[in-house]
Amino acid sequence: MKVLVTGGCGFIGSNFVHLLMKDQSVSKLTNLDALTYAGHPQNTSDFKDDDRYEFVEGDLRNKSLVFDLVKEAELIVHFAAESHVDRSIESPDEFITTNIVGSFNLLEALKNTNPKARFVQVSTDEVYGSIQEGQFTTKSPIEPNSPYSASKAGADLLARSYHQTYGLEILITRSSNNYGPRQTPEKLIPLMIQRATAGQALPVYGDGSNVRDWIYVEDNCLGVWQACKKGQAGKVYHFGGECEKSNLEVVHQIIESTGANKDQIEFVKDRLGHDWRYALSIEGSEKELGWRPETDFNQGLSKTISWYKENGDWMKAVSQKIETWMKRYEGD
Ligand code: NAD
Ligand code: DAU
Question: Is 37 among the residues known to form the active site?
């Protein structure tokens, strides 16, 4: 099978590339990535000499490039996005052009050049907004609260409409918060690991009581791959970790595991419009795809911390790329 992955140099996309390159049913994997601040070529360097792997440095917003690549694929798995909520609050422009217009270009390419191919739109629990109690189901209303989640919701709705209107083989996956190797250290877990280890302040938004449902990235990737192979077009599949934790609990666990000090915690100004809690029902994915998250949080976090410790060069190079963004933590 010929697969086009978008965003394969990012966090989840690169973990997905690693998974698919082990699968001999994949005869060719093309990775389209613009190498933004969040895309790191070293994330897929294991495959650079592999004949089954092709890297194309390019932008989703380049329509003719997107048309050329989509027409060659049997399966398109669309991870590429601007993904950081805080950046979307400060400057949403790229979120609109990449997440909405970029996804639209892929869908147009599918319709016009390759209507028999399968398309998987990789999305997020954040499109449902925040939930006080219970869990989001795949039928919950779409009520995004940040420019990031609104842009993802826009893309999801376009994807849905291209299935409904043109009968294309499109499905959507939505996952909760991923953690694991190769995540850019602007996001909570790698940021806290990096700063805890360096003896720096650990900036917790608000009072740290917001809740996220954590899933080890390889579990999400296995779910997305199952959805690619067995999912029904027109449907939405949830991949949650069944592992709800407050941010403060996560930070405390990182402090314990890295030998850092509780005094490093610093409560800082809250995120604007900060979603209180996310929680996903995974019933449909269990029943239809036979999928469940396998990695327990303690085990996953310990593997993650070890990976960052063993990959200091990666952390250094990636941190340099996000130096300007990280200036916000200066003086902490
Ligand atoms: P990431 O920010 O780590 O990686 C995004 C990748 O997309 C990078 O390699 C970047 O270079 C590439 N990219 C960005 N703009 C592009 C453009 N215009 N053209 C081509 N490539 C471009 O993101 P991630 O955390 O790996 O998330 C991947 C996907 O999964 C996103 O769609 C995100 O919305 C979704 N998601 C993420 C999480 C999470 O916890 N990280 C949870 C649920 C869903
Ligand atoms: O739920 C899925 C989403 O998870 C994905 O769609 C997004 O792409 C991904 O970035 C992630 O969004 P969050 O906003 O939940 O992740 P982040 O790591 O930015 O923050 C997790 C929680 O930690 C959130 O409640 C904000 C808080 N936080 C974050 C940072 C960066 C802090 O308290 N301090 C921080 O410095």
Answer: no
Which ligand 2 atom lies nearest to the CA of residue 187? 18
DSSP run (H or E) holding 149: helix 147-166
User: What would the two tokens of residue 39 be?
Assistant: 């895309």
Active-site pick, 33, 82, 126, 219: 126
Could you give the CA distance from residue 81 to residue 36 in angstroms, rounded to a whole number? 10
> Closest ligand 2 atom, CA of 208?
33
For 239-284, give the DSSP string.
E--S-EEEHHHHHHHHHHHHT--GGGEEEEPPPTT---B--B--HH
Quote the CA–CA distance of 176 and 48 in Å, as a whole number.
30
Interval 121-163: pLDDT, tens: 999 999 999 999 999 999 999 999 999 999 999 999 999 999 9
Token output for 286: 């269990």
Residue 83 identity: S
